[in-house]
Each structure stands twice: as C-alpha cells, then as structure tokens.
Request: fold
Amino acid sequence: MARPPRIWISNEAPAPGEVVRVRTQVVHVMESGFRLDAEGEPIPEDLLTGFTATLDDALLMEWLPETAISQNPYIEFTFAARQGGTLRMIWSDTKGVVAEAERAVKVG
Amino acid sequence: MTLSVSDPDRRRLLAGGASLAGIAALGLCPAPARAQSSLAMPQPDSAEADRLAAEFADGAEPLAEGLTLDLPALGDNPAAVPVRVHVTEPITEASWCEEIILIADLNPKPLACRFRFTAATGSADVAVRVRLIQSMPIRAYARMSDGRVLMARQDITVAAGGCGL
Reply:
C-alpha cells in the first residue's frame, strides 16, 4: 500500500437511522489494457476489481469497477446507521488487496 | 544610435529570434507527431449496451422512474466524469435496491461498473468518476428486491481526446 486511501465521513456519530455518506479515493493506476508503450506494445491491464464496505458483520455495499472507471478510483456511497460498529473498507485488484481502512461509527 | 524598425541589424535579430522560437516550439511538442498510442475503439452502436441491459433486467420491463442519474451535460475532462446514481424512492425492509449497473453505451467496454447492496444498507446512492471515449448516452439500471427494474438515462457531450483509455 503506497499511500493510504482518503476517506471522508459525513458523521461518525450519527443518530439511529441517519443516512451517513462516505467518500473515498484510493491510489490505483487503472491501466485499461488498451494503451501502447513507446515500443508500440500494449501495456497489460491493471484494474481495481473490487471494493467492499462492511459495518461489523453486515455487508453495506460492494462495488465492481471495470475499465471505464477513472484512475485513482473515487467511490461515494451512503448507508443508514441502524447500529454502531466498525466501518471497514477493502479495495482489491487481481494481485490482491490494494488498501484497507477502518473507521469507528458510534450510533446514538 | 537610435533603434528603429527599419534598422537592418535589428531586423535580422528579430527574424533570427523568431525562427529560434519556432524550433524550440517544435522540439517541445513532439506529441502530435507520435504514432497512435491506444488501441481503444468506441463501440459502433448501443447494441452491446442493450445486451447488457437485457441481461441485467432478466425479462423485467425497466421502469423509467425512481432512479436518478446525475452527470454534467458537458464533460470537460473525459478522463474523470463525475456520475451519481441514486434510487429516489424510499428504501424499506420490503423494497430495497439489490444491484445497480452503470453503462457507458459507446465505450470499448460499455459496462462501467456494478454496485451491490443488501437489506442492511438502507440506502442506494453512489457516485464514481468514469472515463469516456466520446460523447454518448449513459444509463443506469437498478434491480429492486421486489423484482422491479428501474432505469435512468442521460446523454453527455465530452471534449475530444484526452480520454486516457
């Protein structure tokens, strides 16, 4: 992990049921596989393939990026804070986990 | 001696300077002369996008309601176009969004990404940045837990080149 992902959370201590917004960005080259290098050879594809956000054991959302996603992928999502816990986010590509991050969310 | 435009020495100096500047400009900008640097080709039509949409809907008739697609009408940076997709109808225990797909019709690979949610999410509102090879329609489909499929569509114009695909 070269650089930790940037994370913004609208409220880390939301009221029960409040919709919490999370914005994150991670460093990743997102090589499309279409580009050619100086010798005219295609540069191998290197894409972020998965992102998951969980709150304790509950899966909140899963994102499956493809070629069209920009370099240094940005993802923003929301969830309803029904209970507190650890918001855990994992970014992965074909070589394995790219980055992991955790934030405590306290409800009430 | 006073300098004037008609002074022959000054004329020569000016001309020399101009040609030097011209050479420097050529040397600094070799990019246009370089050969094609990407194999990316846009889709000729929306056929592949339609196929993806039909596969996602799995027989259900998409309803043009309850789902909103926010993106600029003009994407000034085609390498990072902000796109937000959100289900505007209430998300409840009985009716929540299972999956959203985002399709960029004419991109070399039209499927931009998928988002999957669970009953625990309690919301369906996501935003990403996509790269687009040219101006095209963008669409999003959402499958709800009760089997309905919602769709939204918007056209976007992007500046030529600089796609980064």
Summary: The CA atoms of residues 9 and 18 of chain B lie 14 Å apart.
